[in-house]
Structures are given as C-alpha cells and as structure tokens.
Amino acid sequence: MDQIRAEIVAIGDELLYGHIVDTNSHWISQELSQIGVRVVRRTTIGDNRLDMLTAFKEAEYRADVVLITGGLGPTNDDLTKPLLAEYFNTEIVEFPEAVEAITAFFKSRGREMTTLNTLQGHLPKICRYVPNEVGTAPGMWFERNGTYWMSMPGVPHEMKKLMKDFVMPEIGKVFSLPVIQHRMIKTVGIGESWLSDLIKDWENGLPDHIKLAYLPSLGHVKLRLTAFGQSKEDLSKDIEKEIKKVLPTISKYVYGYDSDTLEIAIGKLLKEQNKRVAVAESCSGGFVAHQITSIPGSSEYFDGGVIPYHNQFKEQVINVSHETLVKHGAVSEETVIEMAQGVKNLFNTDFGLSSSGVAGPGGGSDEKPVGTVWIACATEGLVRTKKLQLTQDRLLNIRLTSVALLNLLRICIHKTSK
Amino acid sequence: MDQIRAEIVAIGDELLYGHIVDTNSHWISQELSQIGVRVVRRTTIGDNRLDMLTAFKEAEYRADVVLITGGLGPTNDDLTKPLLAEYFNTEIVEFPEAVEAITAFFKSRGREMTTLNTLQGHLPKICRYVPNEVGTAPGMWFERNGTYWMSMPGVPHEMKKLMKDFVMPEIGKVFSLPVIQHRMIKTVGIGESWLSDLIKDWENGLPDHIKLAYLPSLGHVKLRLTAFGQSKEDLSKDIEKEIKKVLPTISKYVYGYDSDTLEIAIGKLLKEQNKRVAVAESCSGGFVAHQITSIPGSSEYFDGGVIPYHNQFKEQVINVSHETLVKHGAVSEETVIEMAQGVKNLFNTDFGLSSSGVAGPGGGSDEKPVGTVWIACATEGLVRTKKLQLTQDRLLNIRLTSVALLNLLRICIHKTSK
Fold first, then answer.
1. Residues B80 and B20 in one domain
2. Within 10 A of A378 (CB to CB), how many other CB atoms are there?
3. Percent of chain B clearing pLDDT 90 (strictly above)
4. Nearest Cβ partner of A395 from B28, B294, B298?
C-alpha cells in the first residue's frame, strides 16, 4: 500500500524573518507520522501573493493532503483566504454559521467585535467550514481531484485543536490508512553507539514489519519501535514480545516508556516506595530542583534543596567539614559525599543528592578543567558518586549534570529497594 | 535597490518525521535578516533523490542565494553531495586539502578514521571547498548564472561556524547589500498592547527609514528598530536619537539592549554596585537560582539559595515564624516577606528574594486558586512584594514567576541605588 503523502505550508513573514519559531510544522509532522501519513515536504513562505500561489500549485501536484497554517488574521496583510478562493476559482461569501460562532466567541469573552471580525465568517464558497472553538479564524477544508486541503490559523493551540478534532479523524475517513503501532523505550546513561552495539543482534532479528529508530537527546536515547500491519492488538503484542526479548540486555538503562520523562519516572519510584529526596546543588545551581519540581505532585516526595554556591555555605548550611574543603577542594568526591549526606540530614529525607563542578567557561585549572563535575547520592547505608568530564559550554554542563544526577538517584533507588 | 533573495533548503527524513526540530532554518533566517538579505522560502525535504533535485531546481529559479543544510554524513543515506554533483553536471574528485583537514581532525581527537571518512574529502569538482573546523563534512560553495549555493552539515554548531566565518562575509562580497542597522530595546513588566499604547505617538512619528517591530516573549517585549540607508554610522545616530526620545516614557520597563537578557542585566547591576543576592524559592522550585547561575561569573554576586518546599523547612532553615505560617498560610505576603528576609540573613547578602504560590495543576482553593503567587524582595530598609495571578499551566507559572521576581530585584536595585 502506498503511503499517503502530505505537505505542510506555513505562511508568515514573521517566520521567514526569524521573529517567530515555526513550532507548528514540527508538531504536525509528528502527529501525521503517528498515523502513518508521510510528510514529504514542508514549505515556509511569506505573506506574498505569487509565492503563495506557487506553493499551492506545487503542493497540489505532489501531495494527497495539503495542510496550511497562518495568514488568516482579520487584517489586509493576511492573504491565505482570498488566495485560496482565487486558487480554487471560487468567491468569498457569508457563512452565517461561521459569523454566528465568531459573534458567540466574542460575547463569551465580553469583548467588542469589529466589522473585520464579522468578515472572518465570510469564506470561499466551495470550502467546508470547520469551526474554531478557541479562536476567531475558522478552519477551511477543500477537496479537488483527490487532494484534500485544510487551512488553519497559525496560533499553535488553535491549530492543534483543529488538527485533533477534525483533520486527523477526517484524513482517517477519506483515506485508508495503514494500521500502525508505536512504542518508545526511554534509556539514560548510555550513548547511542554503545547502545546500538549492545542490541545489534536483537535489532537484526526484528521481524520485517517492525522498524527501530534511535532518537538521541541530551543524555538520553529513545528507542522507537514502529509496527505496521492489520490489527492494532496484534501489533501491540508483537511489539511487547520484542521488548521482552531486549529488556534483559538493557534494563539497567531503561527508565520508562512513551511519554515518561526521567523526572516522572523518578517521581513514580519514590512514591511507590514512599521515599523522599532533597538536593544540594553547587554547579547545577538549582536546575536539578527545577527538574524535579516541574512535575505536578512533586511535593509528595521532594522536601527541598540548598544551593550553597560558596564554600562558606557548604559548611554553614549543610555541614560540610572545613577540613574536607581545604584538603580536597569544593570539586571533589569527598565534598559531594558530605554535601549529599548533609542535605539529607538537614531535610531528614531518605535520599540526598549533590553536585559540585566547574561549569565554565571560567574557573578551570589543569587539574580540574572546565567540565569537571562530581555528583553524589547518599542514603542509609549507601553512597554512590560519579565523576563527569563534560563540555566547555556552561548551560550544557548544567543540563548534563542534572540528567546524570537524576540517573544516579534512579540507580540508588533500585539498589536500595532490593 | 532590490533585496537579495535567499532560500533555505533543509534536508533530512528525521526532520520530516518530526524526530528532530529544525532550529537551523530559523537561525539562518535571523542572521540573513540582520544583513538585509530577504529569505523568501524555507523548504524541508527528506533524503530522497527526486525531492532534492526538484527543490534545487525550484530554488535556483527563484533565489540569488541557496543555503542547504544536512544530508552530508558519511553513509549512503546521505545524498546531498552526489546530487549536487549531478545537479551541477560535474564529477566527484578528491580534494587533497579536504582529506588532509579531515585526517587532522580525527588525529587531534585521537579517533580512528574509516574509509568513509576519507571519502568525505572527495567533493564535486566545480565547487569551492570550505573547511569545516569543527566537524568532518566540508562546506561546498557553488556559483552558476549569478546564483550562489552553499551546502553545509546539519549539525547546528558546525553550520553556524560556516555561516559566520564564510557564508555571511562571502555574501557581502558577491552582492552589494543594503546598509542596515538594528537595535533591540528589551522591556519587562508590561504587555505588548499596553506598551504599544504608551508609545504610539512616538511610533507614528518615526522617520520613514526606521521600522519598528514588537517581539513578545514570556513576560518580555522586545522593540526592534531597523534603519535602512547609506551609512552605518548615520543610521546608528538616527536610531539613538529615536531611542532618546522614547526612553523617558518607557525607562522603568527597559532592562537592556540587543543581546542582554534580564539575568545578564541584573548581574551587571549587582556587580556595578558590589551587591550580592540569595533566593528562597518555594513555588518556583529552583528555577530563579538556575536563571541567575546560568550566567558565567554569577558567583561574583550570587551566594546561594534555599528551596524550602515544605512549611517545616521554611521555619527551620530560613526562620519564617510558625505563627505567620499558621495565621496567613504559606502563600501570603507575610510569608514571602519573612522568607526573603530569612534567606538574606542566612547568606548575609544585600538582597533576598522569595516566591511562594500555587503552581498547579492541583492545590488550588477558592481563596487561592491555581496560579496565585506571592513574591518578595528584601534589602536593608526596603521590602517590595507583588501578588501574581497566573495561569493553569505549572511550567508556565514557574517561568513567569521567575521573570517577575528577577524584575522585582531589578526595581529594588534601582530604588536603593539612588
């Protein structure tokens, strides 16, 4: 079966000038990919008649589905609607249903409505009106010679709602889509090439209808399994069977599946075991605490943190000994151990985490160059430490330290739960 | 004078499937816009012969400059180089200089080199070889019928270095670019529509050769002034003259210019006045400390922080009185004042900052719904507080709280420096 081919056309001078990042096209790509529609091209053009008509023509020639975002505002700069009318050789007429919906939208928000807003309810005669419940510019659906078109506002949450409520189901109706199942295995603490080496036999033995993709991101590698076939249930079973095969080899690196993040996975583990954590951050400067507290409900297992940026406060607030700091320095295994134990005691938690390092770009020495970081996790009867040798980039070092420290906590929770 | 027209072609299946966000095209758009080159189209296509050749042909027909990113890896999936050779009707030959540079690159990193890597030094015969000092895939520059082409790797830091070191200067050489000056005024603490209302007379009175753009982002609005003319010096003077006119109206919101961020601006202010700060974060959970410590050299004015996530530690670690917590609750003006003073005392700094609120999505009440946040800044002889009524979104609330708290610090520094 041939895959359905889609093109995305994003319209707006502000995109081409780099004033606004086009997050829409990326999001649409992901969504379509999930239902087995193949995006073959994304085009970004300005609010310009000739560029827009050319893009429409090129897209129609190549694609089964054309998704257009932007250019639907109420002012004269916004050309998408009149040019679609021109392209489809039709006129713009009042859609009473659309005018009514826009009027209701303004009324519900207690806002004044202008003539320009009323005109947003006038649409190309041959289009199918698609209500936009969270904004004023309606969606418009067209069909010609087997190609389907949808025009949507560029505002991300309006576009997303129209995609989910209308476009995705509609594509499923007008085309016979392949049956696809996805499953994502989330790993941390191992690089892409090492992981690939570890699982190459399993990878080579995957059945033809299951594809594997490596998706690396900061300190993480996601393994995406995609199965193609006839029934979702069968595909799910096939995928689970393969996961069972590979898990013994990689289980120590796997923290979760699909939408899990490392912070979410750690939260689950701590809640399950009724344990609590506190953090003492020097070089990571609050970022680990931020990662943990970005998860709703984190107050159930996070008691607090200290950022003792100077040695004096490492001693004063979390009780690192003066001798240790003088003898080994702030960036040392000895110091991070005392920091982790100190913050665990201060907040009376089960686990204490700590970081100390040279985040850069300044502050490095021959012995401890920029990127040298020590981390520790302390709990009753167990202390684990790790030395990291990171990059020259301060922000990257902070983020990588955070991933490594959360992973160290994950390992310690597993060690102590046995 | 006609503007130089550029097109950006980003190549890679991983972009179309939504596995990777294409940040390159956005960055290139911004850079070109700064030197007066107009990006007329951005196209993203997969690693597919026909799609690539079509994109090349369409781009050549329309643009003066074509910038291609991606598809330059050493493996067979990477088609950009052979297809450029095909498109320009030339053969791929060894460029000894390029092979030498790649060999040196591997040697300097102590890594093994494969035959595939050597072949990265073989390039289309008619191209100009552009050394890539931070990676293995060389840049390639082509010219045909007045259109200039550059092919670059998709790895962002490699592409950026090639753009800055070679492409931007080269475009300046082969075209006569318009003379343009930009200046960005950075504001915080006022919404776009309020700001626009405040400065509308000034805006309407701007000379024809100076354009104004509003660029809003989380809690901030940037005002971008762009001047077109004959001499950079004259344009700079013209812009400064306009800034001087508008500044009295908006000075309380202006924290900096151009590449300044709020964190950088605060760092400068504190260093100038030889003052130091500490933070006590409840609802912002470490994010304010992270923002401050993300700036190199922040240890010169940041002493540390405490994240007393539970009331017990607000009392125990930073000395908030039990009575205040019981009487007014953790999310109250009284509590954040004591938190700010407490953390200032603990770290013995000039300024103490604090936050306490309902970040959500749970934890709201009728009296204190989700999004209710109190912040405070305390210093000798001055305490400033602010109540924020934010959104339903936890992460957004954390970020908005951080912007508001840093802005409160900025205001307090100004108040106390007089």
1. yes
2. 27
3. 79
4. B294
